[in-house]
Amino acid sequence: MAKLRVGVVSPEREIWSGEADMVIAKTVDGEIGIMPEHAPVLGVLVEGGVLRVKRGGESDLVAAVHGGFISVANNDVSILAEAAELGSEVDVAAARDALQRAQSSIEAGQEDADIRLAAKRARARLRAAGEEV
Amino acid sequence: MGAQLRLLRRRIKSVKSTAKITRAQELIASSRIVKAQQRMQAAVPYEQEITRAVSGVVSNTASVDHPLTVEKEKPTTAGVLIVTSDSGFCGGFNANILREAEALRGLLEERGIRAVPFVVGRKGVTWHTFRSRTMGGRWEGFSRRPSYADAKTIADTLIESFKEENGIDEIHIVSTEFVSMLTQNVVVKRVLPLEVVESEAESSDTIPPYFEFEPNAAEVLDSLLPRYVESRIFNALLQSAASEEASRRRAMKSATDNANELIRVFTMQMNQARQAEITQEISEIVGGANALADAAAGKE
Lengths: 133, 300
Hints:
Number of strands of chain A: 8
Low-confidence stretches of chain B: 198-207
Radius of gyration of chain B: 31 Å
Shape of chain A: elongated
CATH topology of the domain at 65-244 in chain B: Pyruvate Kinase, Chain: A, domain 1
Shape of chain B: elongated
Largest sheet of chain A: 8 strands, mixed
Oligomer: heterodimer
Helix content of chain A: 10-25%
Order of helices and strands of chain A: EEEEEEEEHH
Distance between the termini of chain A: 36 Å
CATH class of the domain at 65-244 in chain B: Alpha Beta
Mean pLDDT of chain B: 86
CATH topology of the largest domain in chain A: ATP Synthase, domain 1
Number of helices of chain A: 2
CATH superfamily of the domain at 65-244 in chain B: ATP synthase, F1 complex, gamma subunit
CATH architecture of the largest domain in chain A: Sandwich
């Protein structure tokens, strides 16, 4: 079976590239699964989503992806993230800390878009690292 | 005589310490160029992908009708983003940029368009404040290591002003393009309204893919275009950072060379002066001794 060529890039660096059997990402419409020979798609990704790349034989590649796009054409999948982090690179303690801070300020009543965003991002990072949130 | 010698010694000492500083700056700049180039290269994949995505959307949707692509019929104001450096010691880097920006300003005014400068880098900001020109926006402190967040802040301000009813109608960038270690060119580009052009003509045997959009074309375009502008600005910042270091290295190299040449000339002059002094002393001693000998001979 044909394979997907996947590239995960952020503005500052290329985060990962390689071959895969399936890519699962979260767009604003909901989760989308891409397998080889998928029709060309251009989707907007949500803030604080988790990207899953299934590779035959190897364990899944998981990354926290914050905003950006997914574009699929001719078995080329590119994830253009505004910011992204591989699950294996996530600093779990720091992410937990960030989540806690965001949650406590939400509880304290000062809830604005920035704090909600911070909480979302922290949650995505933790999920990508395989932690329970 | 002795005074001239002392003077030369003092000058040599001062030139030597200057040469040490410029040499150090040169070395720092050369190591920074490498880093800046790496950062430039790291940003290439994202830029390529986003350009591909934009041209994909544009070639798919029959009529692109988005506030960011529509050209106003009578543009009255243009925003000019001028990318300069924060620190000096980089030769003609900033002067070149500002000259080009002034030329662009003249061109725009000929067309009856008012140019509003948006300035990045302390040098450009000082230049504008000194001439008491009003700036649409100013950013300082990251010219050597621009991050994507910096580019985003700039893009947000520009796009905000672009969308306003009485805001700017065009956005131009004046920045330095990094061609190689030896060549950097000042370039002027128009970013908005977006010129809808296909990226490099794709080979005719591949049919451009017919994209599906999630959730729909308008919304994808809505979030794609600002990202595209951000990425253009980020690219300009990165190139400018690399160019800044390259021209700093060049300026510091010629300063070091000049200092070494000065040291050579001064050392020669100093040796000459010292030799002249010694010769004179000898001739004085010899003359004195002769006079004494003559006097002694005369007595006998």
